[in-house]
Amino acid sequence: MQISITALAVGVWLLFLFYWLWSARRVKSSTRGEPALSRFLKYWLPIIVTIVLMWPASWYQGTLLGMRFVPSALWLAVLGLLLAAAGLLFACWARSILGSNWSAVVQVKQDHELIEKGPYRYVRHPIYTGILLGLFGTAVLLGEWRALIGFAIMFVSFWRKLRLEETWLGEYFGPKYGDYMKRVKALIPGVL
Fold first, then answer.
1. At what angle do helices 5-23 and 74-98 cross, to 10 degrees?
2. CA distance 168 to 108
3. pLDDT tens column, 149-169
């Protein structure tokens, strides 16, 4: 029996999703959050569109979205799988360090803590960094423009989300958060 690299990637994403749902059981109550419609339009809709674009299916064959942006090569598919797995592991590490301060949406929690250890030493938003690396790896694995467009959609969504989070965290933590922002980049260590 031969398992395809695409099937392995789906398995990696499903394991990530299982961990994410399981670890969401114990979080602090929120003191501030975004309205539901805003959350749907800015975060959930881009996630849905990205899933549809990246789903391993033949829907896009023969269309511009189904055209390749990288050649079809086993080494590229394996590289994509490794990038996806590494990114999702990084996101899970960040999620475990964040603990009960985590939420799926922009919120300030009761007794919110500023976390600066683990992956938060390297980037301010390591969950987004990890998920984006996972999406980029998946795009490389699939090799089609549709997947790269899905990655770009999620990048824009996460960028908008992190800007709001940083505004709220700056208001909550004051100069302490401003100092953290000066020391640590948002998504890519030393770059962005």
1. 10
2. 7
3. 999 999 999 999 999 999 989
pTM (2 decimals)? 0.91
Which residue reads 């030393």 in tokens?
190
Using the Cα atoms of residue 181, residue 183, residue 188 and residue 190 in order, give the sign of their dihedral.
Answer: positive
What is the three-class DSSP state of 49?
helix
DSSP state, residue 68 = B
Query: CA dist 24 to 11, 20, 39, 47, 98, Å?
Result: 20, 6, 18, 18, 11
pLDDT digits (tens, 9 = 90+) for 96-153: 998 877 777 677 767 778 999 999 999 999 999 999 999 999 999 999 999 999 999 9
What is the C-alpha separation between 39 and 125, in angstroms, rounded?
Answer: 18
> Identity (one letter) of the amino acid at 112?
H
Question: What integer pLDDT is reported at residue 182 of this predicted model?
Answer: 96
Give, in order, the Cα–Cα distances in Å from 18 to each of 4, 31, 88, 192: 21, 27, 12, 30
DSSP assignment string, 82-148: HHHHHHHHHHHHHHHHHGGG--SSSEEETT-----SGGGGT-S-HHHHHHHHHHHHHHHHH-BHHHH
